[in-house]
Structures
1.
Amino acid sequence: MTTDSERSRKALEAVQAEVVDCFRCPRLVEWRERVARDKRAAFAGETYWGRPVPAFGDPHARVLVVGLAPAAHGANRTGRMFTGDRSGDWLYRALHRAGFANQPTARSRDDGLRLEAVWITASVRCAPPGNQPAPAERENCRPFLERELDLLLPRLEAIVALGGFAWNHLLAILRERGLAVPVPRPTFAHGAEVALPDGPVLLASYHPSQQNTFTGTLTEEMFDRIWTRARELLGG
C-alpha cells in the first residue's frame, strides 16, 4: 500500500521534473543557455547544467528554505540549489553546524551531500541576468513553489526566507493559502519572525550573497542564529 508520505515524495519528484523541462521565460532561457555556453574561465572544462534548477533536500522536510534564484556560475553550472558558489558555501556550512546537513560543503550533484528535515528551493528556478528576475518571470515560476508548499505544509515547522524578495513572495503565497498573515505585511529584517496560526513560523534571514557576507552585513554568528532558531522550532 502506498503511504501518504510516499505519495508526497513522488508528487515532489513530479514537480521537479516539470521544473527542469520549463521554457516559460524566453529571457531566462536565453540567458541560462548563453552562460552555459560561454563559460567562466575557471570552469571552462565543465559541462554546465544550463536549465531550470530543481529543489533539493529531504522530501519529509520540516524546514523549508527559500532563496531568490540560481547563481549563473553556481547552481546554473552544477544543477543543484546553492551548489558551487560562495553563497552555498555559507549556507551548507551553517546547515552542517546546525545538524541539518551531513557535510559542510557542496560542490556537485554527486558529492554525497544529504539534508535532514530541510528542503531547499527558490522563488525563481533559472539564473536571471544581474540576479534580477522580472515580475512576470517570478509569476511564471510561482506555481512550482506553490505546489511544493502545498505538499510540505502539513509537516513544516519553519520556513526560512533568504532575502527580502523571498520574504515578500512567501507572505503573498501563504496569505492566498488561507494562513493568517498579519496586515500590514510584516517588514523584512534579519531575524524577523511571523508565527502563522495553525502553520509554520516564517523566519527572515539576510541572503548569504557576497554582497552581504563580504561587507559584514551578514556574519556567520548572525546566520547561525537563524538555524539555531529553526532547530528550536523542531523541538531541539
2.
Amino acid sequence: MIAQCLATRHPERVRGLALGCTNFGRGSVLAEPRVQDLLRMMPSATMDAREVARRQEELYYMPQFRSSQRALIDGLFEMVNRNPTPPHAVQGHLKAMDAFDGNAALGTLRAPTLVITGEGDPLIPAENSRLLSRRIRGAKLVVLEDASHFFWIEKPKETADALIAFFAGIE
C-alpha cells in the first residue's frame, strides 16, 4: 500500500514496482470475518504472544507448508520475536490498512508493475491481485499455486525468479 502511494504520488522516483499480497482499498475483496478477527488478535492476560502467533499461522502459510516446515516457521517466529512489534504499532498498522484507499489513483500508475500473490492467501484474497493487475495499465500478474500470504517463504525460488525476470526487463 505504501509502494502504491509512492508510485502514484512520485512517479518520477519509481522505475519499476512490485506489489505483493496487497489490496487497493475501496472495492478490494475483504478477508472472511473469521480471518479478520484472527488478524486483530492481540496478546492479553489469557493469551501470550506465542499463542497469538500460533493461532495466526493459518493466515500466513498453507496447511501442508505448516506441517512440513515446522522447524523453519518456528525459527522465523523466534527471530521475529527477539524484538517484537509493540501492540500500539500493530494497532496503528491495522488502522492504516483499514483506512487505505488507493483505488482512484491506480489508473495514474505509469511504472512497469508486477503484481504477485499466493493463490491460497486468506488474508488478502488473490482476487485482489487479479483486480489490481487489471486496473494498472500493462501490469504483469503472477499467482503462485500452493502459496499463501507469506508466498516468498513458501515459494522462495518462484518468487525470486518472478522478481528477477521482471526487474531485469525494465529499461
3.
Amino acid sequence: MDKIILQAHTRTIVGKKVKALRAAGKLPAVLYGHDLKPQSLELDEHDFGKIFDDAGQNTILDLKIEGGKDYNVLVHQIDRDSVHDIIQHVDFYRVKMDEEIRTNVPLHFIGESTAVFQDGGSLLTNLEELEIETLPAHLPANIEVDISVLDDFEKTITVADVAAPDQVKILNDPEELIAKVEPPRSDEELAELDSEIIEEIPTEAQEGETAEGEGEDEGGKDAGKGDTDSKE
C-alpha cells in the first residue's frame, strides 16, 4: 500500500493569533513522540480534511515538513469546534516502523442477526473499539465483528470470539462482552410497565393535594391567631 503524503510547514504563529491562521484556511498542528521536541506546524485545512476523511485515524501518514525532515506519524488527537464540528487542531505522534505501538482500533459490525430482524430483538453493543498492539505497518483501520452468529437471545460475542488480523495482538480481557441481542418485552412486561406509570401519577397528585391542605390549615390557624391578637 502506498504511503499517504501530507505536506506541512513550520508554524511560528501561536496562542490567540492562530485564529488568523484558521481564517486563512490553515490548520494548526503539533508533532511529538520518541524524544522528539514538539514542533508547531501548519497544514492546508482542505488537504488534511480530505486525507483524514479517506484514511481515518489509524493510518500511517508520511508527514513532509517543508525545509525539514519526513516523519511517519499517526493522528493522535483531533480537536473540533463544539458548535460547527470543524477541526481546530491536530496532534501528530511520530512512530518508528520497527517498534510496536499500542492504540485503539474501532470495531466494524458486519452481517445480520436473525434474532434482530426475525425475532424482534435489539442489538446491544458493549464495546466500540479494541486496544491492540502491533507494528505500525500492520495497523488495521478497523476490526470486523460478524453479528450473524447472534441467531438467538442466549448467544453473545466476547473479545475471545474476535479473530485478530495477522501480527496484531488484542489486549482487552478475552471475556469482555462485545455484543448480544436483548429479547423484546413481552405483553405482560409492557402491561406491567404501563401500570407502574399510571399508578405513579395519582400518588404524586395526592401528595400535592396533601401539601396544599396542610398549608391552608396552617394559614387558617395563623390567621385566626392574628385576629385574636388584634382584638386583645
4.
Amino acid sequence: MQGTGPVVVMVPGMGDLRSGYRFLTPVLVAAGYTVVTTDLRGHGDSDTSFTGYGTNNTATDIEALLRELGTPATIVGNSMAAGSAVIVAAQHPELVTGLVLVGPFVRPPASSAVGLLLFRVLMARPWVTAAWNSYLPTLYAGTKPVDFAGYRASVVASLKRPGYASAFSRTTHADHTLAGQSLAAVQTPTLVVMGEKDPDFTDQQGEADWIANTLHGTAVMVPDAGHYPQSQQPELTSTAILGFLSSLKTNA
C-alpha cells in the first residue's frame, strides 16, 4: 500500500505480476491516491497452496482484500482480472466506487473452441514456462516498455519457482461466464482502456465500445499498445485513468 487519499486496488492478469503496474502506481500516488497492488493466486508474491484458480476465485480474493482494507475502492483490473472486478461490482456494489477495465475479458471469448484448446495445450506443463516466455512478447504488440527485457525475465523467473508453473497453467482454464452474466447488474462508473493493437481481440474498438456501452461507461483506445497499455503507453493510460478518478471525486 502506498500513498494517501481515495483507494485504488490494481490487479494484474494471468501470467503477469503486480509490478506490471510499476509505471502507473507512482503517478496515482503523486496525484493523491492510495494504491494497493496484489498478485493473483499462484503468481508473484502469492503462494501455490490454493485449490482453485481463475476469474471467480480472483473475484473472491478482491472482495476479501477490500473488506480487509475497510473502505470502498476503485478496482483496476487487467485482462482476466477485469472480469473478476465486474463480478465484485455486481455482487458487492458497496465495496466498489469505480471500475477501470484494461484489455478486459468480461465475457467468454469469441475465439473458437479449437483455438482455446490449443492455447491451453500450449500453456500446459511441463513446457508452460518456455511457452509463456515465447508468447509474452506477442501480447506487447506496438511499443514495448523500456524495461521489457528485464521485466520479461522477472516473469519467467517467477514461473520457474516450484509449483508456480502449475498454478499458472491451471489459471489459464479461467471461465469468464459469470463475469458475462454479471454485467447487467453493474451500476458502478466504468472506464474501459484498450490497446489499439491488443492481439487478444480481433476488433479492439468494437469490444471496448461494447463493454463501455453495456456498463454505461466510457472507452479509451490507446494507440501503439497491445494487451498491457499501462506499461506500454503509461503516460496516455495514466492520463485517462486520472481523468476518470477525478470524475468520481466530482460526482461523489
